[in-house]
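Handout, tutorial session.
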Amino acid sequence: MLNLIRSLPRKQKAYVFLAIDLALIPLALLFTYTVQVLPNSAVQTLLQTLPVLPYLLAVAAVLSLWLGIPSIQLKAFEGHAVGLTAILSTVLTGTMALLSWLAGLNQPPGTQVIFGISYFIILVTSRAVLYQVVDAIYRRAQPRCRVLIYGAGTTGTQLAQALRSHEGIDPVAFVDDNNSLQGMTLVGLPVFPPARIAELVKQRQIDRVLLAMPSLSQPKQAQIARRLQKVGLEVQALPSFAQLIGEEALIDKLTPVAPQNFLGRAARADGLGDASDSYTGRVVLVSGAGGSIGSELCRQVLACQPRKVVLYELSELALYTVHQELDQLTEGTGIDLVPLLGSVTDPRQVRAVLAEHEVQVVLHAAAYKHVPLVEANPLAGLANNVFGTQTLAREAAEFGVERFILISSDKAVRPANVMGASKRLAELVVRDLATRHADTVFTMVRFGNVLGSSGSVVPLFQDQISRGGPVTVTDPRVKRFFMTIREAVQLVLTAGAEARDGETFVLDMGAPVPIVKLARQVIESAGYSVRDEDNPDGDIAIEIIGLRPGEKLEEELTLSPDLIGTRFPKIFCAREDHLSEIEVASALRGLRHALVASDADAARAVISRWVEGYRRAEGERRSS
């Protein structure tokens, strides 16, 4: 039956409706004669009316087609269509009265009025019955999605009314937090409390929940959605009808906020000045060029007008992305941009790249930097961060590269994790090479957390906020140094130009920022309020989850309090002890044996022996 209905073109369906409407005219006349007090029976009176019936049918057909009543869809047969039907019935009443007078039919007064009213009621009722029949056929022939509407306000009730005519969606009930609505029936659907959702899902075979509460904040909607998804329901949210028709703007409240807003100090934006001369006209290789720091290094180096920039990157996607962006920046500048896929741990490839492109400056940003991941994969982290640095630095020295700049981290100072220890070992390797290779200037630049970089805390907080929270903080006492990506890269390039050999440079980063304070700032900058004991109705909660393995409460920038000033007011040189050539060789040999044996415990033993502070931090972590 469904296939037959679907196969009929719109014109043929209109003719079917017209035929039904015309067939209802004799039925309305029979009903009229039945309720009237007449000398003859209703059937005999109808037979007496047969001479005028063709004319009545002709008028009805012409007028109905002119009004377009047969072309109105069943699901759209509402207010306007009913009005057109009333016009048709009124005209037929007058036509029947005129024909009865012309034919000399002796009928009681008011008969034609009763006929018009009867025909109007029968035609409208027939359309309603037809709609229910066709709708039932569709329901049986194709699966329908049974939905529960969360929110029985204006948006929810309007949504329920709109869905009644939908071919594939069947609204079943409302749920609402408002106690005054619970137990009521709105637009034909009962309203239940949210506590009964699990019961309703089983009893009424609900497939999906529609969140119809556009005035509720995005985090609270996300919290409700997550709770419903745990029950196995598909959840969808919709904006208000005012937003849909353009009366209200559809605004994503989580708008980007400038990273320097979270620094707690004024951002440094002094520029490179004469430091750019160290990169002008030179061939610069950036390892890890596709990362957050690496890509910004490339941008700022390009502003110095180098002769060539070699983008050295292990990730194909990251290299493709950064090359696509930088290729537009170099258009028409004459700067040669070379994208190269490769690993810093491959000595033959590194040697070939340095020789083929005659590299003069190396900016080494390639590293595994995410503390929990490196803590869970210590051998991979040590192999990449320590031996990758050794390979690239050694080959750079043997090839006679002018400058080699290692990008390090504040986590390298008395590290409590493998990532920090690997960066400290990388510093020691570079410092050792600096004492044995006079032709290459080696230096290290150490800074804290970079706002906005991949995996950093602000994007994490923003992602948690977009999902409704909570925002997770490891410990309320945790503090970190922060700087912007632009600041970090300016420090690297400026210090690299200032270096004479083997220095470790640090930036005056101001006071460390409490992470709990930063979490509050990010929540409030997104337009939401913090939910806590003082504000139980807030949008986003801050949850304390405990320190992760290898995490410290506070980071340090130097091993020694002795800092030497430079000609740049905010850049200092750290005076720190270092290992001898024999000690570095011994550390690397022990580490290499641990990697060959795939022995993580042995690798940790090596770094505990040679990295200052690591063993003590590890012991503190166990005792806590």
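The second record follows below. Compare its token runs with those of the first.
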Amino acid sequence: MLRRAKNLAGLMLAFTLIVSGCGRYAETVEKPAGEKPVATETPKLSVETPAPQKEPEPRELVPFAESRDFERLYGYMDQAGNIVIEPRFGSAEPFYACGLAIAGDANGKLGLIDRSGKFVVSPEANIITYSDGVFIALIYDGNRRARAYDENGAFLFEQADWIYQFSDGLSKISANGKSGYIDKTGKIVLEVPYKNTGEFCDGIAEVAMEYGGPSVLIDKQGNDLTEKVSSGLRMIKDAQTGLFGYEDTSGKRMIEPRFITASPFRDGLAIVGVEGGTYDEYLVYGIIDTQGNYVLEPEYISIRRMRNGSFAVGEKLPEDAFFPSMYVEYCKKALFSKDLKQHTDWVFLELDDLDASYTCVSDGKKIYYLDSRLNRATDLPEFEGRGLMLADGSLLRGTINEQLTVAERSGKILSKDEKLTLLEGGIKARFVTQYPHDYTTIIYPILEGLEDAWIEEQLNRFIQQEAESYVSFDGTYAEVDHYFFPDTRINCSVNIIKDLLHIELNVSDYWLGAAHPGYYWINLYVNIQDGRNFEIDHLFKSPEDARRRLSEKVNEAARKLNEESYDYYDTVEPHQIRNFQLGKDGLTVYFSLYEIAPYAAGIPEFYIPYTEIMDLIDTEGDFWKSFH
């Protein structure tokens, strides 16, 4: 599956790099959203007064990055390429329809900025999410707490631990022995006796007295909707078998407990799960009517009820299939109508509700919308690529081929984050995405702006080959075992410091059914003047002495970490010093998973300042001089 990176020594580019300049633009200060023009008295002139000009709509802003040696800062430009907000953030995302965007500082902390680039919520959060008009900031500074802000960045409330996402204007809460729902002021507006509470959607939430117990549907006043919505049937659980069935409101058993999992009735139908498989036990799902009869046989890997009443159904499995439980997320899906007629083939990789009427679907090649009758929506756009575009106010927001995108409902793209990066010498990098298989994602940059087109082509070909070298393109996985393929994701980035091209690859490789994924971190360095590949030995006068010193420093650091309950296996030997990443003031030596520590330690990293090894560095060598 994984192959070792090709030796860069084969890339011999004998050239002198000439690049074209990259123009810079002064920062444009825009009128803050909501600010009204000052009213003035109309002057009495003998000539006709020009009609007042309409206030221009704010330009949509696209994030970009600028590399400054080893530092990368983020800003925003318009679609014409004019820089509107100068790079000064540690991270940046496209703006929401409300006019705010999530941006970070140099320390990785997140806040909210307006279209002028001003922080309206200071950067102190570890995570920020957005739902139903509320930004939720998780802050971990020794104590976990969360704060809620409205769409203008105004503080709403704070609470310990976490705030669940808002839906239908409410957020579920379980704290201090109380369960229920809070409004956008943080006030509990509905307290319920149920321990397990679900989100409200279209005025209804699914709740249960205990985790794993029978559930019911309630409205926003906490009323049990068994009579109104669930056909008068309430779920029950047999204490002996743990199986679910249904009884009426008088307590009469109507459907005997025979389901491993079940859901409340809605519109006269309930989704249930039973044991399936001939040689291996797994759950398969079907749909029953109020008599307990199957109206959709239990032979599907998953079933999900959509807001418009249709059903997203996961593919059937052969009776003798053996598959890991996480395959449910990767299976192909089809859509069935309310009357359980299949309207589509098993083609959808992703799907979700746009609203109460439309479903957004992706077949891997296109993103489009289906109405409540599961016909192609003619009043909503279609996008080329893979992902989902969901509602953000009057706009659409989501990902297309891994790129955060904002669009009008007409289909006009307002902002697409191609991770544009301005490198040294006027060179630019834009990122593209490949899907060799449904379960494999490769993201790598394409360089632009080199005056020599042949050089640019060779470098881009090499970067692409390196990114692709960690995955098979021939469909081998599916031939070996369709249900146990690896979910592989490869992220490749580049930087140019003086004459040094740095290629960084992050590879995650998760075989379905494995206990955990594998991670690989690869750093490659190439002199863009002559194509020479640099390894760690090229940095030192005496590689043997340097490896010995570096291994001593790693062992010293590992001993200190072991005193803090870490568990490094063995003493690192000089020959194990090979993986490294350069920094502005030092280098990081790192090791593969399991090489010197258990999986829980991740990829062990040890930072060593240049000042501690300066006597070993060959400051007149080609490697050092290439980036100094």
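Points raised in discussion: Helices lie at 453-468, 476-480, 543-563, 622-626.
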